[in-house]
């Protein structure tokens, strides 16, 4: 009996352990006789070094430095250090870099307008709102792709141990322990809900 219980626990653990990865929503729109219908399924996205594309395709509205605007369905290419958007134009394909834009935005699966501002190598999307705001390098809400943080209306800073400690302080030993272990997202969640 003990062997069966152990085997059951191991099977459950193996089924739930996906290594470094996450489930992301993937919307699909189909035409039906009654009009367009959008359905959402969850797709597992493994996170590993060299992952060619973990960005989903969204309908991005892009405002360029010269104030021209366009809207196109595309994904953020994160395969290189410098993130890009590849768009189709009348003259062929064009590569858009963060430095070429004022901002870009998309509507998430939840219907939220997610705005991205250009940084040196990526766009930063305001993915968390709270005492500490979080900015992700992909157009996704939540804590999964955090790259920068901001306290109140202060400057947007890279998500590092030193910057996070400066924002949360050292009064909470449990929070301090999370930060020391590199669990920055958990520390921000805890701090924002206190």
What does this structure look like?
By secondary structure, the protein is an alpha+beta fold. It has a domain at 22-143. 21% of the residues lie in helices and 42% in strands. The chain contains 4 helices and 13 strands. The chain has helices at residues 2-16, 161-168, 173-180, 184-193, and strands spanning 21-32, 35-46, 58-64, 69-74, 76-77, 84-89, 92-96, 101-107, 113-118, 123-128, 132-136, 146-151, 157-158. It has an 8-stranded antiparallel sheet with strand order 4-3-8-9-10-11-12-13, with helices on one face. Strands 5-6-7 form a 3-stranded antiparallel sheet, with no helix packed on it. A two-stranded antiparallel ribbon has the order 1-2. β1 (21-32) and β2 (35-46) form a beta hairpin. α2 runs antiparallel to α3 and α3 (173-180) packs antiparallel against α4 (184-193). The longest helix is centred in the first third of the chain and has 15 residues, at 2-16. It is globular, with a radius of gyration of 20 Å. Residues 10-20 and 47-53 have low confidence and may be disordered.
Task: Produce the secondary structure layout.
Layout: H1 2-16, E1 21-32, E2 35-46, E3 58-64, E4 69-74, E5 76-77, E6 84-89, E7 92-96, E8 101-107, E9 113-118, E10 123-128, E11 132-136, E12 146-151, E13 157-158, H2 161-168, H3 173-180, H4 184-193
Antiparallel strand pairs: 1-2, 3-4, 3-8, 5-6, 6-7, 8-9, 9-10, 10-11, 11-12, 12-13
Helix pairs in contact: 2-3, 3-4
């Amino acid at each position: 009996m003990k062997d069966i219980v152990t085997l059951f626990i191991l099977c459950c653990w193996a089924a739930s352990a996906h290594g470094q990865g996450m489930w992301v929503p993937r919307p699909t729109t189909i035409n039906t006789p009654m009009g367009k219908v959008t359905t959402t399924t969850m797709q597992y996205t493994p996170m590993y070094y060299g992952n060619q594309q973990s960005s989903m395709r969204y309908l991005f509205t892009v405002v360029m430095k010269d104030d021209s605007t366009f809207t196109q369905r595309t994904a953020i290419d994160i395969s290189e250090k410098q993130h890009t958007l590849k768009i189709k134009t009348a003259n062929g394909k064009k590569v858009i870099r963060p430095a070429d834009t004022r901002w870009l935005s998309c509507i998430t699966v939840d219907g939220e307008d997610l705005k991205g501002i250009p940084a040196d190598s990526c766009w930063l999307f305001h993915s968390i709102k709270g005492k500490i705001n979080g900015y992700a390098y992909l157009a996704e809400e939540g804590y999964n792709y955090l790259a920068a943080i901001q306290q109140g209306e202060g400057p947007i800073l890279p998500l590092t141990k030193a910057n996070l400690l400066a924002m949360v302080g050292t009064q909470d030993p449990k929070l301090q322990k999370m930060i020391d272990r590199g669990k920055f997202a958990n520390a921000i969640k805890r701090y924002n809900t206190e």
